[in-house]
Amino acid sequence: MKESVAVLGTISEDAGGIVLSDVLGPAPVAPAPEREFDVAIVGLGYVGLPTALAYRRAGTRVLGFDISAPRLEAIRAGRADLLPSDRDSLAEALRHPGFELTADPARLQSAAAIVVCVPTPVDRALAPELGILRSACELVVSLAAPGQLVVLTSTTYVGCTRDFLVRPLQERGLRIGSDVFVAFSAERIDPGNDAVEQERVPRVVGGATAECAEEAFALLSRYAASVHPVQSLEAAEMTKLLENTFRAVNIALANEFADICVELGLDVTEVIDAAATKPYGFMRFVPGPGVGGHCIPCDPHYLLWQLRRRRMTAPLITQAMALIADRPRHVVERARELLAERGIGLGGARILVVGVSYKPDVADLRESPAIEILLSLRERGSVVRFVDPHFEQVALPNGVVMDAVEHPERFAADLVLLHTRHRDLDLAWIPEGTIVLDATYRSRDVVDRVLL
After folding, report:
1. I want to staple 429 with a disulfide (CB 3.0 to 4.6 A). Which of 2, 116, 286, 409 is the partner?
2. Of 216, 231, 246, which closes a domain?
């Protein structure tokens, strides 16, 4: 961190960040001490751990912090769910003195910068569940040392960085932009996707002050090839909400087109492939059985929740999220229709769900539509099982724990539901004549499949 000079005066706020006025003159600030680590990552989950590894690959001294002892143990043992390239990076990092894992919060003071990467889910009422984020920020604020930069990366509502970091730090008597620095730069990690290296994904950053933005820009530039600054914390927060809301709306549209194509006797994948040949004005989105993870099913609700508090509506976003939430029910209904065509009732039907994670090639069940589908099929009397190379068991919301089928070819399914198509999942065992409901829209190698 560079030595900086503070300006005394009253602090006011506007949409562009903190503004200093009534300038009285410069006041010296003690230089930041030499730190043991360049950056500390708070939260070593699906975002935090890959972020820590990206910094380490760039030669940065990294401290990884997590309150979960089992998580730290899994990382140290190399059992974390990572891309193959990140597994290699982890193995190398664990041997390097510039990479340390800890559950001791006091160690955070040994880092020049702290990056907060914790989950921001929604509750059953689709309101933000901010407890984890609030606790993480309170911890960081309580330990923040002069000269440190704090960057929030967790997706949240517009104004959250100011509420959870800027004001609490000011209440501690720390001056933002001179004593400590605060910025927001949302994560852009796509678990299971190795098509684009993390270092090549541009990062957007907004600071509480110009000095904060400068410090955060320098930190992100340590590993990211491109960093795009915006004028405020709020603009950076809204950028992330726009990104995932855009995806949600377009996925809802793709799902709706899939239903339309079924009604008109068309293959929606053929239609999408044809439309995607246009080199401008069209972006490919593929329908599916629903949406999982902690981005698309959750992030737009942070915006809708904030708008409701302001008595403002967003009809398009609201309808898109309702359609996404209804998709698992549609899958169950489509299965009922296909079985009925063969004179088989849903009650008592033997149904095998192939793949239960929320996306291919990740061991992640967060918000997976498969959970709701399995539960609904069981409640309607089906004999339902699942197969997934990433999971031996799945716990349903009603407390039932389901075991994976070891030999799917022996299950004698009336209907096979393709929910998630992992690359290492062989489907050659599916008997000829079995109803195969392809909710992935990607399994063209399966004979006689029926699209959702």
Report:
1. 409
2. 231
Domain boundary among 231, 253, 276: 231
Concatenate the DSSP letters of all residues of 326-367 into one string: HHHHHHHHHHHHHHHTTT--STT-EEEEE--SSSTT----TT
How far is the first Cα of the chain from the last one, in angstroms, to the nearest whole number?
54
**pLDDT tens digit sequence for 234-254:** 999 999 999 999 999 999 999
Domain-embedded: residue 238: no
**CB count in 10 Å sphere of residue 380:** 16
Q: How far apart are CA 372 and CA 378, in angstroms?
A: 10
Question: Considering 117, 160, 261, 295, which one is annotated as catalytic?
Answer: 295
E-assigned strand segments in 28-148: 37-42, 62-65, 99-102, 111-116
Whether 21 maps to a domain, the answer reads yes
pLDDT at 191: 84
User: Would the CA dihedral through 432, 438, 443, 444 be positive or negative?
Assistant: positive
d(CA 216, CA 213): 5
* Residue 117 known to be catalytic: no
Buried b (16+ CB within 10 A) or exposed e, 222-258: ebbeebebbebbbbbbbbbbebbbebbbebbebbebb
Please report where in the chains the tokens 């140290």 appear, as a residue.
76
344: domain CATH number is: 3.40.50.720
| Phi, psi torsion values for 63, nearest 5 degrees | -110, 120
Helix/strand/coil percent split, the chain, to 5: 35, 20, 45
Query: Residue 67: CA atoms inside 13 Å, Cβ hemisphere, count?
Result: 9
Which one-letter amino acid corresponds to residue 13? E
Same domain, 334 and 209: no
Q: Going along 202-340, which residue ranges are E strands? A: 203-207, 227-229
Instruction: Supply the pTM of this predicted model.
Output: 0.89
* pLDDT of amino acid 49: 97
Tens-place pLDDT, residues 143-198: 999 999 999 999 999 999 999 999 999 999 999 999 999 999 999 998 888 888 99
DSSP element (H, E) containing 13: strand 10-14
Q: How far apart are CA 90 and CA 96, in angstroms?
A: 10
